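In response to the reviewer comment on reproducibility (Comment 2.3), we provide here a single inverse folding case reported in full, input and output, so that an independent group could reproduce the run without further information from us. The structure tokens appear first.
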């Protein structure tokens, strides 16, 4: 209790900085100033009431990666519980936008409020979820405590915890332990994640695998990628996917020294607010740049194609010959390397893989991926693979087999949710049929 009291005092002291944070972020993403009331637990009233009455299953996916990972779970829950509404909450505009692209009007969406007690209370009273699922690892002490006090089972699903994050949580051991012990159930991706959660005080942790393996490439995006590839002709394509700040500059500097010849470098930044910045970086480095959003045929003289579109990552993987997964060249922990494996593309990753440690180790071990240390090494390895069709084929086949071998976490996670979903009362049935 003392730890949470001090935590709430710190939250109050930080309130002016919360507003400053939103204003500063809005300079690159104006969407940060939209739906401001939701950040503090104020939602439109009365709430929209689609078919199915008031029974709500709530999933929280902080941003893009978690939202995409939630997709197979959302689909399974909608099929199994057609009389329930799915509420999807986010913390970032890009996560919310990804939800709109993936699910349209098929789910209700909102921002999860900041962890102020009054805001959390308003959120829970407004939506009244029958069960809550936090995707990956977010520990909000007030949210966990209030769910427990209001009888709402709260689950931590697809949880991952790197050594770096575990050390950070250890600094607030009492607060962390209290939050972990407040969950109705915890499901980790790997035994290593589970062990770190247990060391922080989690009472029981199940290991169910990683639901990101269950993200199948959408057929329409594969077809879109094939069409994009046909438009490029015979040019080989190196894709730099989900790149993070600082990585593109390293790539462009290396490319100036190690040209790809006739090959095209396709760059897809992780965050859409950086599209313009990355295009300017490439132009300043002296390259002929074209943007995907122009919807024009890729010119023969174009050296860098900027993938400045949302929701097309699988299409970009389908259009490339070799894929580098960003967030791994610098110390960001890597983005999702499972997706290019599932498409059957040779994967290059950097040294920083703490967000996907287990998957990276296994992909490297089975030959689906190769690891590089520098941008120069990345380009050198890519050129080697672009010249060796047989090696690309072997890596692609290994990637498909690797992704298929680890599927199944979604079914286990949905079963876990089902175990903790309270039975529908007679009153609920009457209200639903009225």
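Designed residues, in position order:
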């Amino acid at each position: 209790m003392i730890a949470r009291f001090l935590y709430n005092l710190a939250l109050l002291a930080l309130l002016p900085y919360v507003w400053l944070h939103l204003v500063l972020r809005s300079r690159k993403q104006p969407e940060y100033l939209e739906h401001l009331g939701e950040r503090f637990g104020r939602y439109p009233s009365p709430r929209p009431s689609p078919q199915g009455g008031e029974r709500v299953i709530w999933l929280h996916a902080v941003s893009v990666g978690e939202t995409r990972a939630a997709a197979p779970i959302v689909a399974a829950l909608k099929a199994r519980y057609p009389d329930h509404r799915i509420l999807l909450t986010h913390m970032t505009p890009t996560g919310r936008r990804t939800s709109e692209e993936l699910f349209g009007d098929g789910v209700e969406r909102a921002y999860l409020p900041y962890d102020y007690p009054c805001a959390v209370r308003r959120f829970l009273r407004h939506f009244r979820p029958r069960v809550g699922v936090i995707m990956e690892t977010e520990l909000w002490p007030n949210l966990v405590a209030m769910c427990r006090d209001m009888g709402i089972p709260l689950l931590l699903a697809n949880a991952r915890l790197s050594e770096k994050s575990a050390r950070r949580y250890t600094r607030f051991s009492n607060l962390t332990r209290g939050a972990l012990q407040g969950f109705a159930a915890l499901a980790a991706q790997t035994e290593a994640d589970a062990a770190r959660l247990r060391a922080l005080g989690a009472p029981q942790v199940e290991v169910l695998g990683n639901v990101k393996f269950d993200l199948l490439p959408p057929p329409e995006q594969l077809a879109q990628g094939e069409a994009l590839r046909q438009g490029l002709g015979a040019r080989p394509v190196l894709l730099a996917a989900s790149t993070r700040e600082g990585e593109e500059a390293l790539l462009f500097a290396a490319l100036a020294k190690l040209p790809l010849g006739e090959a095209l470098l396709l760059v897809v930044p992780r965050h859409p607010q950086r599209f313009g910045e990355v295009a300017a970086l490439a132009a300043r480095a002296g390259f002929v740049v074209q943007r995907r959003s122009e919807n024009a045929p890729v010119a023969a003289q174009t050296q860098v194609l900027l993938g400045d579109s949302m929701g097309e990552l699988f299409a970009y993987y389908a259009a490339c010959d070799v894929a580098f997964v960003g967030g791994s060249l610098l110390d960001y922990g890597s983005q999702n390397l499972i997706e290019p494996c599932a498409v059957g593309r040779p994967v290059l990753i950097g040294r920083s893989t703490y967000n996907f440690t287990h998957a990276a180790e296994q992909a490297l071990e089975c030959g689906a991926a190769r690891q590089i240390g520098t941008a120069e090494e990345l380009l050198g390895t890519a050129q080697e693979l672009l010249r060796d069709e047989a090696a690309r084929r072997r890596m692609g086949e290994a990637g498909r087999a690797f992704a298929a071998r680890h599927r199944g976490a979604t079914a286990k996670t949905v079963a876990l949710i089902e175990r903790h979903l309270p039975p529908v009362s007679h009153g609920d049935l009457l209200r639903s049929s009225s």
